[in-house]
């Protein structure tokens, strides 16, 4: 068929670009992961599945994965709650609403490394303002960056501070696009504000919420710059995320082949985890399958 | 229970737009009233004022004899069906219908019973577990109706519920709506811009223009004795014909002159306050205009040329231009301040036609010159300045 042939010719440039940008690096990483390329032997030899076998028994890698998941979960949950709260506040006409909308977007526009440096000053144990403020309430100084728990919390706080605005923008846009009629119907039906939120706003926002959560989950799981500038994964390895470990293995220790295998495992786990998560969340928020009770 | 009263209701929006202007209206218990008018006439705003979704700037709203201006929509005991149905998209049909009952904390057995009853009345039993997106327009409309009737409200407020449906379904659901009203006997206000819907559904019809109530009466009275030129032009399709005429005699034996012809009018067209020699607008429906072959020598006939014939079996609409250039044909739109070339649109501003509704079996030929005979017992006289019907209250 003439039409079919032309179709493929026209698609070819886009397909080639796709292969060059996405497929080739991916395939090359897989090939690298089967090699022993490191600082001593920088060549694309073939060592089979050795790197993968080593990764399976690499406790530090799995620890970093655990740290990452806990961090991502906390970050995204707080960002969602705060972002949705702020969006609900600024959804209806509020005095100086436009000013606040712009203000809330500012953190998102700042470079993560710059912000991490600023926050390192804020969290400084003796000179930082954070402990000063806590002392007003009689709370003793917190060793923000020198103890595991506080350091972990510091990373979460910075991420939440920076990316809540992203949730806020998406959710506010969603709220502003909601139809007016279901609200009027709820008013006539006699629903108060809480019931209207639970039975109208929240379900109507579910598709947008789902999209926002998934985007943030993907983004947060690449958390690296803040950790690099703030804690360098420490104290110990308490804030070491998988991305940061990959950076250490690949660009500090130059274990290129091994790092490639870690990347592939990390990618596979992320795809599986996010797919399961997105499906469960979708079923929970939108699908609600099964027998319906009124 | 269910009588609704409006006294001096006025709604001015913050930008200064007067949406509803001094409306007085009484709706009896169990009555089916239709609010009709062109877009932007304030009919939907008035319905929203009655529902409580909007607050009146001035005036008094009563329901069952109680003033309800400050009563919340929830406590008004009225159910509303929205133009696009406003179903909750994430809920099943059953949940949609039951929502108002759940909010009011009804017992589960009572909810099941009422939902079952509504589903039976509206033939929704098969659809109860479906979501709105899985339903057709007609089915969604029925669900919206079910959501309203399940509450056993004192009044139904229907905001153009049929306007999103195709013509065939609209006719079908119109009948269902009327049957449902007869079965439930609940006071119903139905808003529409479709005059056919208004005339077929309403016990009484309220016609609005630019926020003001023009006439509130039975469909028959609206058609036969319109209060003013707006109502005369709005009700009826094709629209009423209007020509300028001079009053020769007023009172019991009213006679008017149209060009060189004199027409003796029936008692319903008595000239009101206008005296002999005054100018009026003479209005007559297309079906009250007869025709004969030219040369009959009919006294009081208007000579006209057939310009266009539209067949709408079993009838035909004949557009004819008057031979006497001194006779001024007017359109309802230009008389009430709208566009002026509704009838003369085909051939420019100079060509103005009278429309006849005749049997499709007996039509004149296109281009033929004919005599038009106005049925003097079925005409209305309107004041030139105010547009009010001069004979209506004579």
Description:
The complex is a heterodimer of chains A (294) and B (394). Chain A is mainly alpha-helical and 294 residues long. Chain A has one domain: MetI-like (MetI-like fold). In chain A, 74% of the residues lie in helices and 0% in strands. Chain A contains twelve helices and no strands. In chain A, helix 1 crosses helix 12, helix 2 packs across helix 12 and helix 7 crosses helix 9. The relative contact order of chain A is 0.14. The C terminus of chain A is likely disordered. With 394 residues, chain B is an alpha+beta fold. Chain B has two domains: 229 residues, 3-Layer(aba) Sandwich (Rossmann fold); 150 residues, OB fold (Dihydrolipoamide Acetyltransferase, E2P) (Beta Barrel), CATH 2.40.50. Chain B contains nine helices and 21 strands. In chain B, a hairpin with a 2-residue loop joins strand 9 and strand 10. Chain B is elongated and about 80 Å long.
